[in-house]
Amino acid sequence: DLQALAKKDNVTTVFFEALASDKTAKTLAKDTGLTTDVLDPLEGITDKSQGADYFEVMRSNLKNLQKALGAK
User: Fold this and answer.
1) Topology of domain 2-69, per CATH?
2) What is the pTM of this model?
3) Which of 61, 21, 32 has its CA nearest to residue 13?
4) CA-atom Rg of the chain in angstroms
5) Second label for 50, Cα 20 to 30 Å away, from 19, 20, 34, 60?
6) Which residue has the higher pLDDT, 23 or 20?
7) Structure confidence at residue 70 (pLDDT)
8) Using 50, 70 and 90 to split pLDDT, how confident is the model at 44?
């Protein structure tokens, strides 16, 4: 069902949170031919965060969303 929905709605990316496991997202992406990317929820900035403060992390989240949506 998810594969059909992704195809119907032109979904390209499965997102997962930086502080959560990526295993489910990567399995779903592999099974459906999609890519994965990260969105940081800011619950705790760590070494794995895509920025050192709120603004850097939000810019990174925006960049990841723009890439997934095909925006420039």
Assistant:
1) Rossmann fold (3.40.50)
2) 0.78
3) 32
4) 13
5) 34
6) 23
7) 87
8) confident
Query: What residues are paired with 29 via a beta bridge?
Result: none
Here the tokens at position 24 are: 């489910």
61: tokens are: 């989240």
pLDDT digits (tens, 9 = 90+) for 48-72: 788 888 899 999 999 999 999 887 6
- Taking residue 49's Cβ as centre, other Cβ atoms within 10 Å add up to 18
Residue count (the chain): 72
Contact 4, 11 (CB under 8 A): no
Separation of alpha carbons 72 and 16, rounded Å:
22
Which secondary-structure segment (H or E) carries 16? strand 13-17
